[in-house]
Design goal:
There is one protein chain. This protein is of the alpha+beta class and 152 residues long. The chain has one domain (2-146). Helix content is 23%, strand content 38%. It is built from 3 helices and 10 strands. The chain has helices spanning 2-23, 106-111, 116-122, and strands at residues 35-36, 44-47, 53-57, 60-65, 68-78, 81-90, 103-104, 126-133, 136-140, 146-150. The chain has an 8-stranded antiparallel β-barrel with strand order 2-3-4-5-6-8-9-10. Strand 2 and strand 3 (53-57) form a beta hairpin.
């Protein structure tokens, strides 16, 4: 039963990771342009059509779903490719089905009896391409594709 509950959180984690990837930037860029794949353009809070947030800040990311903390991780960029790796999930999100409203790492999930395959699914890396144009972030490919708006 617990195994099924953990797997229900994977689609949510995947969506958040995609959003995060979208918010991350690549190391390429075009100097002083306000669009393209300049990683500095990713340093912002991005919001999707559902109102969920992805905060990107110099390689660190944090997401929230429905106003509640959801994921933490890191991102790297190369050209216009972004790679996102999660390192913690929050138990306050119902889809995660974790016993307490706190941050959980790989080690914490092992203690709860989550299988290594389940942990690998939750914390897998994802790659996609991105572009920032004005206040819009677009991510293509990878687990997260979509359009995000820079939060003011």
């Amino acid at each position: 039963m617990k195994r099924k509950k953990i797997w229900l959180g994977i689609p949510v984690i995947t969506l958040v990771f995609a959003i995060t990837a979208a918010g991350c930037a690549s190391t390429g860029g075009s100097g002083g342009d306000k669009s393209g794949s300049d990683p500095a353009l990713l340093n912002a809070t991005w919001i999707d059509g559902n109102g969920d947030l992805v905060k990107l800040n110099n390689g660190d990311l944090e997401t929230s779903i429905g106003g509640k903390p959801a994921h933490r991780g890191t991102y790297t960029v190369s050209g216009n490719t972004i790679t996102i790796t999660l390192n913690a999930v929050h138990g306050g999100i119902p889809d995660h089905n974790l016993p307490q409203s706190k941050w959980y790492t790989r080690a914490d999930l092992r203690k709860l009896g989550v299988t290594e395959d389940g942990i690998a699914q939750i914390f897998r890396s994802s790659k996609g391409t991105y572009n920032v144009s004005a206040s819009t972030l677009t991510i293509k490919g990878g687990m997260w594709k979509g359009t995000y708006t820079k939060k003011k």
